[in-house]
Amino acid sequence: MNQIRHFDLDLAELKRSLVNMGNLVERSLTIAIEAIQRPQVEAREQCRVIEEQLDTLETAIEDRCHQIIALQQPMAGELRLVISAMRITSDLEQVGDLAESVAKRASFIARHQLVDNPTAIQALSNVVLTMVRHAMEAFVTGNLALARGVITDEHQADALTKECYEGIQERMQEQSDKIREYTHLLRAASLLEHIADIAVSIGEETVYIYRGTNIRHHHDTIPDK
Fold it and tell me: What superfamily in CATH does domain 3-221 come from?
C-alpha cells in the first residue's frame, strides 16, 4: 500500500472515531434531557458509564492525531483536519461531562420533590440536541450551510435559556418548599446553554477545516458555501 493511500485511510479512520464519539455524546445527552423531563435516579449512572467510554476514546483519538502529525507530516487541509479533530474531541468529551451533570441534577430531583418544568426547558433541550447533531453532521460532510445554521441557532438557545431562568425563578417564588429542586433545574438549563456554546465551537472548527478560515468572534465572515 502506498504512503498516500495509507494516509487517506488514517484520516478516514480518524473521522470514523470522531463519529463514534459523537454518537456516544448524543446518546448521553438524550438520556440527560429525558431525565430532566421525567426525572429518574438511574440517569446519572447511565451517563457516567458513557462518560468513561468517551474518556477512553478521547485519549485514543488524541494519540492517533499525534502519530499522524509525527509520521505523516500532513499539509494544508489535512493538517487542519487533524488539528481540529483534537479540538473537537475535547469539545465532545466536555459535552459528555456536561450531560452527566444534567443527569445528576435530574437524579437529585427524582430523589426528592418533582418540579413543574417551564415549557422552555423542552424547547431548549430540543434546540441543543439538534445543534450537537448538526454540528457533527457538518463536520463529517463538510456542509457549511449546516455549520452556519448551528452557529446562528446560538441566539435561539440563549433566548430560551433566559426564558427558562425567568420561568424557574417564578416557580421558586410560588413554591418555596422546592427551592433546592428548582435550583438544580436552573443549573441544568445553564448546562444545556453551555452545550449549545460547544456545538457552536464545533461548527466553527468545521468552517476552519474546509475553508481554512478562523471565524471565532467573526461570525459575519462565515462562507456561504
Answer: Phosphate transport system protein phou homolog 2; domain 2 (1.20.58.220)
Of 107, 112, 117, residue with least CA distance to 189: 117
Q: How many residues in total does the chain contain?
A: 225
The rounded average pLDDT for each run of 10 residues, N- to C-terminus, in the chain (225 residues) is 67 92 98 96 97 96 92 83 93 98 97 96 97 96 94 97 98 96 98 98 93 69 55
User: Smallest Cα–Cα separation from 200: which of 146, 140, 131?
Assistant: 131
Using a 10 angstrom Cβ sphere, with 0-12 exposed, 13-18 middle and 19 or more buried, the burial of residue 20 is middle
- pTM for this model (two decimals): 0.91
Assigned C-alpha cell, 75: 499539509
Residues near 188 by Cβ (< 8 Å), separated by ≥ 6?
36, 102, 105, 106, 121
